[in-house]
Design a protein that fits this description.
By secondary structure, this protein is α/β, with parallel strands linked by helices. It contains 10 helices and 5 strands, in the order ααααβαβααβαβααβ. A 5-stranded parallel beta sheet has the order 2-3-4-1-5.
Length: 241
């Protein structure tokens, strides 16, 4: 590689192409391929490298505690899950349709693993997503009340293509936090999907959110366009949720 060519590739941030240039040039001379084929090989490798980097960046921003995939989910060990239904959801049609997904079941049945697997599929397809524990979400909401940044927090969460709220259950929350949560669900309603994992049936939600009228309105929005998946099966010790 000439010094000028190397500098041009560095200026264009073609890191992967720079790394494999000599190897590909040698292969091209051996196979006697055309200039356009040689260039295609370089650009294809560069494109794949940038796609991988972009995915890693999206996964990092999504704040996964652990990255689970649907390919490794032990469906055979969890008869309480309809594999065909999950595979259908993995086609991601629920995202443009703004259809929510709620996983309901006792602890250690794979709710978090399934929800995370769907979120990973969305990330792999270029969507902006975030994973957040319910307790952390309500903590952020409480902190936002103190510095009056609730609107800023809502704006960030509402704009996400997919938001996964994990382990929604009996939490000690104040009415102000419940109000912000209601606004979050209301503003995402019919625009962007929310995935929730919980050990509570819908009729138990007023017990921790309070204000039955508000909870009724919240559930009307959440469940209007929603896939509710109730898991009743054995515990899976190697997966949370």
């Amino acid at each position: 590689m000439t010094e000028e060519l190397e500098q041009l590739m560095k200026s264009l941030h073609m890191k992967r192409s720079t790394e494999i240039y000599a190897e590909q040039l040698k292969a091209a001379e051996k196979d006697d391929i055309t200039y356009s084929d040689f260039l295609s090989r370089l650009l294809r490798a560069e494109w794949h490298s940038r796609q991988e980097y972009s995915l890693k960046a999206r996964i990092k921003r999504a704040r996964f505690p652990e990255v689970w995939s649907l390919e490794t989910f032990p469906f055979a060990k969890q008869p309480g899950v309809n594999k065909r239904q999950i595979r259908s959801l993995a086609e991601l049609e629920f995202i443009p349709k703004a259809e929510n997904i709620v996983f309901i079941g006792k602890s250690s049945m794979g709710k978090t693993g399934l929800a995370s697997g769907l979120l990973l599929k969305a990330l792999e397809n270029g969507y902006r997503c975030q994973f957040i524990r319910a307790q952390d979400l309500f903590d952020e909401m409480y902190a936002s009340l103190a510095d009056r940044s609730s609107r800023k927090l809502l704006n960030r969460l509402v704009k996400l293509d997919v938001l996964l709220i994990d382990e929604l259950g009996y939490l000690n929350i104040k009415s102000e936090q419940a109000n912000i949560f209601f606004k979050l669900i209301e503003e995402r309603y019919r625009h962007r999907p929310t995935i929730i994992t919980t050990n509570l049936a819908y009729d138990e939600w007023p017990n921790f959110l309070g204000n039955p009228e508000m909870v009724h309105a919240l559930l009307n929005r959440l469940r209007h366009y929603c896939h509710t998946i109730r898991i009743d099966g054995p515990e899976l010790r190697d997966l949370q949720g």
